[in-house]
């Protein structure tokens, strides 16, 4: 006896194709048939269009009594709105030289017939018309752009190159007194440099892997460092030695930040967790877990949200420090958020990814706009000063300078690798402005530290502002 095979259920794709075929068989013959013309509906549509587009213009001028309404004048082909003068119509009075009337391109079919056979109307300025009678294109150009126009900014130039590290320079931080700055490198050392002269003041050793994060306290004589060796260290700058270590990370520590008002430290790393430490007791207060990948950027605020983190999982999270829980998650980026920069004065911040650079509002995280061009590289570092100059550094050695308010990219620089280095060692890993915002320090893959300042000889004439407002309003 033969056994019946089980009937396999049809897939959803096959069922949708069957339904589509049935619909085509039913309605395909009527696709090429047009509905019968309705002169009355055409008349109403054209009347409404004329009143909606040109009603406000026509109401500002007085029409002569012998000119019929626009709907009653019926040309056979197309119609044009013309600004007629006495030379175009001998019946018009001299006082009605700048009037908007409907001029038929051919004779009407008959009185009372309201059908139009044309498809469009245009405004044609007559000779000798005043400035207020403009074409539609000119009127559209007078509409102000929603984008704020950027102010002119002087270009930045490199004025000093500092050599001394034996590996990639991965991190930088400035002293609150603006007398020195420190850099951390893949050679496992921290070096302290004089801001004015660029001379080496001190070298600190203690890490056994590259140093990816540095921060200098404004309240104490402490400096904090974090590296790939899973260690977070507190340095006493009066004794120049490590006085505390914070243990808890399960992998390398990539970023580090200090709270401006409270004695706590925040670190994020490859274990996808941002950890909150008490500076003095070395205790871990919170483990802010929620990211799916490496936490590579963090900054803190005195108000809610007190912690903002960016991750390789392409999200930005806002955290409440009191409860250690997520307040909001921003999913605007499509790729890793490797760098963030908070404006020192305004309540907003920018985040950088390989897809774009975006600005967000604080405290709620509303999206403001994208920057007006794309750097098209992996952006490792960004910084902004009080004057509204933002700089971003990429893996390919490109440095782009932006106007913070408008998002206009006013300068693009390409770093030059040192002799003996490979062209692929042109990456920029860290950037920071000094306290005044007049100096910029970049840490690069060719083992050098470069210092930048504005070109004092530049003028708007020598370096004009080439700005075009964007056409894509959807950026807002």
TrEMBL record:
InterPro entries xref list: Prp46/PLRG1-like, WD40/YVTN_repeat-like_dom_sf, WD40_PAC1, WD40_repeat_CS, WD40_repeat_dom_sf, WD40_rpt
UniProt KW Heme keyword: no
Keywords on record: Repeat, WD repeat
Domain of life: Eukaryota
Positions of the UniProt region annotated as Disordered: 104-129, 454-476
Record flagged with keyword Repeat: yes
Signal peptide: none
WD repeats: 162-203, 204-245, 246-287, 288-329
SMART domains cross-referenced by the UniProt entry: WD40
Pfam family, one: WD40
SUPFAM superfamilies according to UniProt: WD40 repeat-like (SSF50978)
One Gene Ontology term, aspect cellular component: catalytic step 2 spliceosome
GO biological process terms held by the UniProt record: mRNA splicing, via spliceosome
UniProt similarity note: Belongs to the WD repeat PRL1/PRL2 family.
Name of protein: Protein pleiotropic regulatory locus 1
